Amino acid sequence: ALLSDGIRPTGIENLDMIPSEVDLAVAEVDVARTENYLQRLQWALNPIRTSSRYDYLLIDCPPSLGILTMNALAAVDRILVPIQCEYFALEGLAVILRIVQQIRDSGANPTLDVAGIVMTMYDGRTNLAQQVVGEVRRHFGDKVFRAVVPRTVRLAEAPSFGKPITMYDPGSYAASVYRELTEELVSRMDKDATATLPVAPASAQAAPAAAVPAPVVEAPAPVVTVVAAAPVTSPAPAPVTAKAAPMKKAKGKSAPVKPAAGTAPGKPA
Question: Which of 138, 130, 94 minimizes the C-alpha distance to 232?
């Protein structure tokens, strides 16, 4: 099946998505066994990228550096790195930047670059958050977006209603920050595209792909992946773990357990 067959409308104008599925749980193993495993996503994206259907393609990655994330890094033009305002997240950022350099050096994606770093879950009431933001800006300068995503209750509530914050509470401060972040990201991508626009043959009909219908131009679409800087406590990437929810104890008295047929009470069956 083609990747384009999984495109679904979202209910938001000019925005489509390809949802995740359970089969991706085993993709880490299956893809690793194939030839040219780092290029699998790149090949699957090419028909969508070279069409005139979208202006931008955004790939959301899990907060781990497995085969799926490595495929995304090999397939995109730029990466967007959200980082929590915590010191352990700085370790995760260092790991991601090292992996980006390795992807470039290996030849899998020589032009891969960091579009920017987004500071998230910012609480201006704490000295820790202010110190982390200052530290990141000091080391990475203009790579850090001006917009800083705050930690708010409305942001936490929005996913439970199945809406982005710009629809759940469009007048909130968090929604205005995300609009500012979007404008800043598009501005950076347009600036990079103008500086490095390749010259295509006159017969080429490739156009930039994106979530908004695009004008036809002679260039492939920019692709951005979102790779979270997961907090880690060592240079090795942190594994993704899931904690089982505790079982609730039923109220009232429990029913006695009856022995199996042909078994004496108190003796194993």
Answer: 94
- Split at pLDDT 50, 70, 90, the class of 136 is very high
**Per-residue pLDDT reduced to its tens digit, 221-256:** 566 666 655 544 333 333 333 344 444 444 444 444
SS3 88: helix
The DSSP secondary structure of 227-266, one letter per residue, reads ------SSSSPPPP--PPPPPPPPSSPPPPPPPPTT--TT
**51: alpha, beta or left, given left = phi > 0 and alpha = psi -120 to 50?**
beta
Max distance between CA atoms of the chain, in angstroms, equals 88
Helix axes 67-75, 87-106, angle to 10 degrees: 60
Give the SS3 label for residue 167.
helix
